Amino acid sequence: MELTWHGHSTWHVVVGDTELLIDPFFDNPKTDVDPEELDPDYLLLTHGHSDHIADAGAFPDATVVATPELTGYVQENFGHEHTLPAGGMNIGGTVECGDAWVTMVRADHTNGIENDPDYSAGMPAGFVVGDKKPTQESDANCTTFYHAGDTGLMSEMVDVIAPYLEPDAAALPAGDHFTMGPAGAGIAADWVGADVVFPMHYDSFGPIEIETREFVNEVKAAGAAAEPVVLDGDETYTLE
What we know:
13 strands, single chain, Metallo-beta-lactamase, Chain A, RibonucZ/Hydroxyglut_hydro, alpha/beta
């Protein structure tokens, strides 16, 4: 599995022959990529804030995976014709996306469409992407990536995501102000039980600027077994 961070919360994930793009927002200082350079098969959207869906319209041929409310919004406003499943999915569901399996999990955050305050975007979410369908039986040969979306600390990380979905890697928001900061992300790194953790959702604009060494220090202070890895923008990490 290849994980490429394009700044903020934007991740390009390759599982086998399948490409997934999570939360497309390329107007951030960590990326030099033009959205037109990418051609994802699936577009995963955690919630409706503009810094997570701003560039969704650049991928009209991608199949959208999001809540029913957000799916309907991007279909109407960005012209997407394909969704999975038809009409969207919801918290706790798992869908097969080519060579990947995608499970939608809870995130503690607000939601809504900022340029249309009367439009609901449904529940905010995170995604767990794996190369096998999750079951109650532990599978050491399954490779799994947890994208936490925008969230604060929540008990579901330790009660559900860690024991059931067993992420090998996790991308955790660390910019504070709108999500958990480095301290919360450090605790989350311990709770989710991943082998490697990445900070995201930071340095894109003033209120969420951080020193990434704080994230590294907080992961260690929490006693997490995870290795904290700070990627450069557009850098790829191979998860095996």
